[in-house]
Amino acid sequence: MRAGPPKVKGVNTGRGTTRPQRRGGIALAFGFLALCAVAAAIAVPNLRAPGLYYDEVIQAEPAVEFLAKDGTPLQIPGARSVWLCGRWFPVMTQAYMGALKSQALIPVFALFGPTPESLRLATLSFALLGLLFALLWARLALGLPVALVAGALLAVDPSFLFTSRHDWGSFALGFLCRCGGVYFVTSGFRRGSRGHLFAGGLLCGLGVYNKIDFAVFLAAAGAALALSAPRALLTGLRAPPRPVLPALLGFALGAAPVMAGLGGVLSALRVFVAGRHVGSVGLREKAETIFTMLDGSHFQRLMLAGGSFDDVMRVEGATWGPFPLIFLASALFVGLRLLRGAMRGDWDRAHAFVLLTSFFVLLGTLLTPRAARIHHALNVYPFPQLLVAIALVTLWRSRGAARRTAAVLATAAALAGSLNADFATLRTIRETGGKGRWSDALMGLARELQGRPDTAVVSLDWGTRSPLRFVARDLEVDEPIWRLRRPAAPGGGWTFSGSPRHVYLVYPEAYAVFHYGGAFLEAVRRLPPGTVSIRTHEDRSGDPALISVRFARDHQLVYRSGGFEVRLR
Question: Is this model's pTM higher than 0.85 or not?
Fold first, then answer.
């Protein structure tokens, strides 16, 4: 059995930098810059489209409010801010999600202003910095060729690029913390660097602070390490604790805001889990999410479904690539080689760690209640790409033209499939400007109403307030969804007094979340002609994306038992 992961020539041992190491470092640097150029060429053009989505903006809003002199703290369940330097500094976005992204966006918005472009460039940059750490770890543990191949697979992967560009679930920072944490912990133990160990622990702690489901990755990586290198792990645990203390200290510091409110986190998770049990339908939904994440079609499906996660798998015509098949074949290939190596006493720990971490993270995602969205499944990145790169490089290094040909064809198929899905997704975005909840029609309405003190918006569905306020902060927006769902007095209904200055927004039924819009439109369409104006806002392809309603007179809305009554004054 090997004493550790396969060593790369020129790895720093503390006695200086060797010439092979310098050459490898230069190759990695140029490779990373080339991959960033490719990723930017795909993901940066036309950053304004599609329109802003609620989950994309919810953590940007506290950064905007912190920079504003009259800013207010985020007002959603679980959000927490502290008064700092005369401003409301965000600490938690929700009980299970810290405000790390909000904090990281504060300097970005201070320098470049809060715009869709600056928001999306920032989150894409966070992910590309994570890509750098993934390359550094892969070079350290697996070798430069594996690092560059895995980097190429990631740089064109549609799920990675578009989820980073339109970040929700705070994926980009989670990816950065994951890759940076693994790199610094590994290099810290190899070099005996307390600074690297502290940095690795800090990034892992910040990953948990960023979002609590980072714990799935930590548990999976820990289990993979225990199985792939049990003797080394036991030796490390029996040794004096001094090398481990910096990592533990860093982790405690990074995760401190979440740990301070652990009771609230556990309470929120109990409510969250109780809402829906893990059954066969849930497992199927998660498996479909994982598959479409790997084949690169998930984000285009979301675009075509108008941002409705529930309808992703009903979409037809999305473009996909062969990566899931290549991933499964690679897992089988690497697994068989590891099995043969174990029987000979030649176990490659680094390869085993990548394979087992991939398996355990995906298994953890399947077992975590309600973790059915792509930002949950993406906790496994970059390990699928690392596993495929291991298989491809191993095949290339094998004797025989057939194996080398298979490596070249598989690499070309994976890259071509991802690029094809990239361009198809970009074409959908360009032609539609986003559909439904993701349509830029909402942004157009925000710019139209911006700066008009005679206008106030009332959203009768979920997800419009934050995007509207991000584009037009001076716009008065009310979103009384929760008051509609829980009327103040049992049987008393919900009442709202309005005037001609109020603009009511609803989604078409296909994109509705709470479905109050249909009952509202049914009520207003019964009114006499000339008393109300109903306007349909279309996406670039001509499909309805949003409906706005404005009354010509003072009025009162009453909602009872699933229906609206309009009283004109």
Answer: yes
